[in-house]
Structures are given as structure tokens and as C-alpha cells.
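Ops channel
N.P.: pipeline sanity check, posting one input/output pair.
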């Protein structure tokens, strides 16, 4: 397991909210704290540029976006 982390000078309201949240989730305040940190600091995996492009919806064909000369 990783190292210990000590957080000092936490407002009483924050500690109370942490304990209430822990109780609601059926875990200790320490386990709740770890879960909050894990969720806050975890990042979704990076997607490649190709994956981002592939996830975009199909909005038409090239002809749909062709420029038309002004009819002036």
C-alpha cells in the first residue's frame, strides 16, 4: 500500500460531512476519504485523435458542404 497522508486544519463541517457520507456508503471515514481522493484524481484514459474522430456523428457528405457561387 502507498504512504500515509495527514490533512490538518480541516473545518469541522467538512469532517462532519465526510463522516455522514461514509456512514451513508457503509464505510469508515478513512475509506470514504480514500474513495473521494481516488474519484477526484482519477482521469479517464486518453483517446487517440483517430478515436475522437471516429466517435463524431455522421453529419452528411462532402457535397452537403460544397460552396455555391452567389446568384447575384
Amino acid at each position: 500500500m502507498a504512504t500515509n497522508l495527514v490533512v490538518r486544519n480541516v473545518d469541522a463541517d467538512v469532517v462532519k460531512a465526510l463522516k455522514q457520507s461514509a456512514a451513508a456508503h457503509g464505510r469508515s471515514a478513512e475509506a470514504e476519504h480514500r474513495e473521494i481522493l481516488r474519484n477526484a484524481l482519477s482521469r479517464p484514459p486518453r483517446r487517440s485523435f483517430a478515436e475522437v474522430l471516429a466517435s463524431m456523428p455522421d453529419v452528411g457528405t462532402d457535397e452537403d458542404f460544397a460552396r455555391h457561387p452567389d446568384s447575384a
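N.P.: looks fine end to end. Residues 36 and 47 are 24 Å apart (CA to CA).
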